[in-house]
Design a protein that fits this description.
Elements: E1 3-7, H1 11-23, E2 27-31, H2 34-44, E3 48-51, H3 60-70, E4 76-80, H4 86-94, E5 99-102, H5 107-123
InterPro entries: Bact_response_regulator, CheY-like_superfamily, Sig_transdc_resp-reg_receiver
Pfam families: Response_reg
Organism: Gemella haemolysans M341
């Protein structure tokens, strides 16, 4: 079964993400901050990650950079209320993210992003910094 790591300090958004990915047939795991996300990624090696930016302990941009540096094939999708801000969006891609959605995404948007990541995986495409 394919796996996803849902990283968000909000239990509401973790649950919302879980609803979508479970409908798409994914097994999911949660992390509440970037530091926990890096540890969890190392342990479970998920097929992709949804990552909030603004979190305690380690933010999502730093966690994305650490994950994508240590695991070059990692697929990280930024899902954040500030992800659309140009400076954050540029930094997300520079740190290795393969997509950015606003935190207020609808379920269809997230499912589309997941399918795009799956296509990238099938075609062996990686995000260029």
């Amino acid at each position: 079964m394919k796996t996803v790591l849902i990283v968000d300090d909000s239990s509401y958004y973790r649950s919302r993400g879980a609803e979508v990915v479970s409908r798409a047939g994914y097994e999911y795991y949660f992390a509440e901050n970037g530091e926990q996300a890096v540890r969890m990624y190392r342990r479970i090696k998920p097929d992709f990650v949804t990552m909030d930016i603004c979190m305690p302990i380690m933010d999502g941009l730093e966690a994305t950079k650490e994950i994508c540096t240590k695991f070059p094939g990692a697929k990280v999708l930024i899902c954040s209320s500030v992800g659309h801000v140009p400076v954050y969006k540029r930094q997300a891609f520079a740190n290795g993210a393969c997509g950015v959605l606003p935190k207020e995404y609808d379920l269809d948007d997230l499912e589309f992003a997941i399918s795009e990541i799956e296509i990238m995986n099938e075609e062996g495409v990686t995000q260029k910094s």
